[in-house]
Specification:
By secondary structure, the chain is an alpha+beta fold. The protein has 16 helices and 14 strands. The strands form 4 sheets. Strands 9, 10, 11, 12, 13 and 14 form a 6-stranded mixed sheet that branches.
Length: 413
């Protein structure tokens, strides 16, 4: 950012930067989180959002992310917070991903809902007002409804998400514009209702001004991520200019600080208050299996800058084009990403199949084997699988050579 050229920058070692990120994102080994639903609510508040994903070859991302930070986590707790207690709600995070969000942030997201004019949904609503009006009228009259409650027009043949039936498109567009919210889920299908019936108190709260909303977002992101790249990496594309201006103002006032990170090109930013405590930040205790949608991972450039890994999620590629595997799970040990794993949960058989596992050449496979085996065993249990199955010996699916035997011994120990 141009304003940072003449602004003194703080300098962080790579270790300090990693620990600042781990601390902000509740991966620093602090096990003082409250148990149960209250702990889940506070974790979501701390992270700012938890991404929702449909892939279920292993436990879905939102449950995995929360379990990583709260070992006693149970999926029913998230359902209760969203559908009974209304302490979290669903919408799009600042990364542009479907997410669970703290209800205390609703007013700022409502501000964004009213400004959401940068995608196909707003255009679709204008062109198909009759369909949207019909869908809204039914919800207003009948209560929560999902896409399955609306029949497709005669002769309609959908061929994928780009060819949804009109009512499904209307629901998606109405949701994005804030005219309906997710009231509950039936299976994994969203059921939508009017905002004033889902979150009556939050909807009635005053709307922030443009300046208040933008400043809140910058603070929210820097606080939740510990340190962040420039606003070009954030998902609210229509608001890039005010976000950039606000960040510059916060740097000028001393509330935010530009950072040089050891060995990293470009400028990062952090809240001044977080930097005051950087020397107290710790690494994670033991090893952890992370979701590829974890907040620590999701910004691939930041992930590469801080951890030196270039991991790509390949589940959306044809099998022949995958270089590693279907669902890449990064492996955290202390403050380092030491490897990656591809796994599948065979829940009916109670087996977690490790399809492939690589420990990075610069990691100590011998020292990591014990902590890593414990993390994999715990991850398997979270998936409802008491047994871990490693690839066959000698097929090269575990690297480096000898790592499979080390893991097998540790898993059997």
């Amino acid at each position: 950012m141009n304003s940072d050229i003449d602004t003194p920058r703080a300098s962080l070692s790579l270790s300090q930067a990693r620990r600042l990120a781990l601390r902000a994102q509740a991966l620093d080994g602090d096990r003082s989180a409250l148990p149960g639903e209250e702990g889940v609510a506070r974790t979501i508040e701390r992270l700012g959002y938890v991404q929702i994903d449909t892939i279920s070859v292993v436990e879905r991302a939102h449950h995995h992310i929360l379990w990583t930070r709260q070992p006693d986590y149970a999926p029913d707790a998230l359902t209760a917070l969203a559908e009974r207690d209304r302490r979290v709600f669903e919408w799009w995070s600042w990364r542009g991903t479907a997410a669970y969000l703290p209800v205390g942030d609703y007013a700022y997201y409502a501000w964004r809902m009213r400004r959401r004019v940068d995608d196909w949904r707003s255009n679709w609503l204008q062109e198909h007002a009759d369909v949207a009006d019909h869908v809204l009228a039914r919800i207003r009259e009948e209560g929560p409804l999902g896409s399955a409650d609306f029949a497709a027009p005669e002769g309609f043949e959908g061929r994928g998400w780009w060819d949804w039936k009109p009512a499904k498109r209307a629901l998606e567009a109405l949701f994005t514009s804030g005219q309906v919210l997710v009231a509950s889920r039936k299976g994994f299908q969203r059921l939508y209702d009017l905002p004033e019936r889902v979150l009556p108190e939050a909807v009635a709260a005053p709307c922030p001004t443009d300046d208040e909303a933008v400043r809140w977002l910058v603070r929210r992101i820097l606080g939740a991520e510990g340190l962040s790249r420039s606003v070009s990496g954030w998902g609210w594309k229509a608001d890039q200019e005010p976000l950039c201006t606000t960040l510059q103002d916060m740097v000028a006032s001393g509330e935010a600080v530009p950072l040089d990170v050891e060995g990293v090109d470009g400028v990062y930013h952090a809240l001044a208050g977080a930097l005051e405590q950087v020397d107290d930040a710790r690494a994670a205790d033991g090893a952890r299996v992370l979701s590829p949608f974890d907040p620590l991972i999701i910004d691939r450039q930041r992930f590469g800058d801080l951890f030196g890994r270039d991991y790509r999620l390949e589940c959306y590629l044809p099998a022949a084009k995958r270089r590693f595997g279907y669902f890449l799970l990064p492996l955290l040990w202390g403050e380092e990403i030491i490897g990656r794993m591809d796994a599948k949960a065979h829940r009916q058989d109670g087996r977690l199949e490790v399809r492939r596992l690589e420990i990075e050449p610069d990691a100590d496979a011998g020292a990591a084997a014990g902590p890593l085996a414990g993390a994999i065993r715990s991850y398997a249990a979270m998936n409802g699988c008491p047994e871990v199955i490693l690839p066959a010996d000698g097929d090269g699916a575990v690297a480096p050579a000898g790592a499979r035997d080390l893991l097998a011994q540790a898993l059997d120990g």
